[in-house]
Amino acid sequence: MAAMLGLARHSVAGAAAGGPQDEMLERMRAAFPYPIATVPGQRALAEWQKLSRRGGGWPIIISGDEALERVLEQYSIDDRSVFPMPTNPDLPPFPAPRTPQEILTAAERIEVGAELQRLFDHEYGEDPFELEKGEWPQPHEIGSMGLSVDKDILTGAYLDKVHLCVLPTEDSADAAAYLRWGNWNACPPPEVHVAVHRKWHAEYGAQVVGMSGDVIGMRVTRRPASRGEALALAQEQYLYCSDIVLQGTETLEPLAAGLMESDWWYFWWD
């Protein structure tokens, strides 16, 4: 696939040879089995569209160098050939990293609503956690939403360079399984991302376009048709990624209104 796409298996961008940190980055890159392309940020979405039309795998926009390093780390963090750990003869050996197929199989057993509520209760406690009711914003009060991983989060300017990888699947919902993405802090484990994204693809045509170290960007083909539907979806997204409300919209109403106004969804975990 790398030859077909003209993608080089290069070392992590910006890493100079010689130090322990650089050696670790080289090991992470060597363990990452998917081809990577690097393009100017303003061309990232166009390149993604070209690769997705071509077929032969699902493209993911990763963002810049720091995001690439975090994606590589998440992929290989449990790989003891990349991150050696001292052995203890009195303890069982560390398990091998799960394969994408093992993660995808685990996703098939997940009931999304119950699992999201369980994870939310685990993070915040089982006492009732109710958001205040907010005001429904006016259309001009809703900021425009689009792809974010191709831009500087502070200035909104396009990044000088953005990395993309191509995963060996045609289903964007599989992306978290192939990247072993998640399972840190309040971010769900990979199989939950897969199950949620499968549900949203069936209901809204949602597809994963970007995945940086802590952000997922999705694009949909159908928006919620009513305020009630949008609020129910916003509640589900809040359980999935509470930071978009608690550190963002503060109430569900602005999130729900945005879901009715935009084809882009944004999720972020700290």
UniProtKB/TrEMBL annotation:
Q: Which domain of life is it from?
A: Bacteria
Do you know which Pfam families this protein is assigned to? DUF4253
Q: Where is the DUF4253 domain?
A: 164-270
Protein name as annotated: DUF4253 domain-containing protein
Q: Which organism is it from?
A: Alteriqipengyuania abyssalis
The record lists the lineage as: Bacteria, Pseudomonadati, Pseudomonadota, Alphaproteobacteria, Sphingomonadales
